[in-house]
Amino acid sequence: QWSRVRGRLQEEIGEVEYRNWLRQAVLHGLDGDEVTVMLPTRFLRDWVNKEYGNLLTAFWQAENPAVRRVDIRTRPAGTSERAPDLAEVEPKTAIARPAAAARREAEERPDMSAPLDPRFTFDTFVVGKPNEFAYACARRVADGHASPGFNPLFLYGGVGLGKTHLMHAIAWELSQRSDEVTVAYMSAEKFMHKFVSALRRQSTIEFKNELRSVDVLMVDDLQFLIGKDGTQEEFFHTFNALVDSGKQIIVSADKSPSDLSGIEDRLRTRLGCGMVADVHATTYELRLAILEAKAARAGVVVPGRVMEFLAQKITANVRELEGALNRLIAHANLFERPVTLETAHEVLHDLLRAYDRKITIEEIQKQVAEHYNIRVSEMSSARRARNIARPRQIAMYLAKQLTSRSLPEIGRKFGNRDHTTVMHAVSKVTELIEADPDFAEDVELLRRILTV
Ligand code: ADP
Ligand code: MG
Fold it and tell me: What digits encode the pLDDT tens for the residues 347-397?
């Protein structure tokens, strides 16, 4: 029953949401008319209760009419301290594919490596300007022809932009190429847990040997090790041992090695020694291409206008974009209705509202000033030093983009400047965005902060 309920939930809310929120839900018991479901954290519990409580109850009742109440609780001590987003950090597990296949695979794989998501292959990865370099590096390493200059391969970028996808793709490719190559993929968090439990069991030698026996070691979300000095130290030694014997290391993080403060200097230095590839925020074109690929793969007809609308609106990251598309598709399937712009508005109402939230010029000024570490008052000051004028121009640009204010209105809010000044700022920033990916990323980041 529980597995059917889970299946229906997954269908209803889409894989991405399911994975984010409900993957860790376990059935605790069915007692008379009450079902108890456990989640690992209070945060997850509250969220699931609020967002999916009714659905859970409804699906349970459909399975078993005796059920009156679904009680959602947290798992008892030990696991209750875990952070809510561990569902993300932990590599995606087998939910998406048939349980039997997943089990088989888990048995075949050495315990060292976490399961790989079968959907995360090079075939399903859509390449565009923002990720082409990272993609090319990943391909190189997966081909097995990478020079020592690619060791380690360090992939970095914001959440949901495809780092884990690329790592899994490399692992799939390598293991397909040869049975001989042993690949271990794990999150940095898993690395730490393994290390800590080896310490506890006094089996660190086995741990070390096991790790050092692999040909390719991948550690995802290395930022997790910030401030965890003991584990960093262990990782550092593993790293050196592997690289010295010509094994490949692939690491991902949310920042570049030099920006990973809280990671020991000598480790950061070594991390930056190989190939460092940045996965940039998506562009409209890439988002559209991803939607097209996903819809085609799902075998669902989604009108071009709907995809354009989604690509325009849902800019935060690919995961969210994918989630939105999945929701639309699930909805269309459930009600046997085609996907239209109207249903998109209706189904994604909550998501879109967050994006549409009215943003004020004051908010933009405050956020931009904070980001560039200048005073808000400088937004209206007459100073023209670059370190002040540039943020001011960015704020004007964002004001034009994110609010419906006219150029003269915007000018007035920036110390009574003329509308031509605003116009100039908009075109200057547009030009810089096109010319300089780092700058573009910065502006995108600000936009993201302002629109959530
Ligand atoms: P990250 O590890 O950078 O946080 P993920 O690799 O988990 O991000 O990607 C989030 C989701 O977006 C995954 O489902 C992934 O398949 C999808 N995704 C990201 N980038 C792409 C891309 N270029 N093409 C296709 N799917 C993508
Ligand atoms: Mg990831």
Answer: 998 788 777 777 889 999 999 999 999 999 999 999 999 999 999 999 999
- At residue 452 the predicted structure's pLDDT band, cuts being 50, 70 and 90, is low
pLDDT at 85: 36
* ipTM here: 0.99
Q: Fold match between 284-356 and 361-451?
A: no
Ligand 1 atom 4 nearest Cα: 160
The rounded radius of gyration (Å) of the Cα atoms in the chain is 24
CA nearest 308: which of 281, 282, 341?
341
The CA distance from 329 to 323, in Å, is 10
How far, in Å, CA of 396 to CA of 197, rounded?
53
- Choices 2.40.50.140, 3.20.20.150, 1.10.3660.10, 3.30.300.180: CATH for 2-82: 3.30.300.180
Q: From 353, 364, 442, select the one nearest 403 (Cα to Cα).
A: 364
Q: Is 163 annotated as a binding residue?
A: yes
For the stretch 34-69, pLDDT in tens is 888 888 776 677 778 877 887 888 788 878 878 888
Token code pair at residue 221: 């979300």
In this structure, which residue's CA is closest to atom 23 in ligand 1? Answer: 126
Ligand 1 center–CA 184 separation, angstroms:
20
CA contacts within 13 A on the Cβ side of 292: 11
CB 254 within 8 Å of CB 223: yes
Q: Taking the domains of the chain in order of start, what are their residue ranges?
A: 2-82, 90-279, 284-356, 361-451
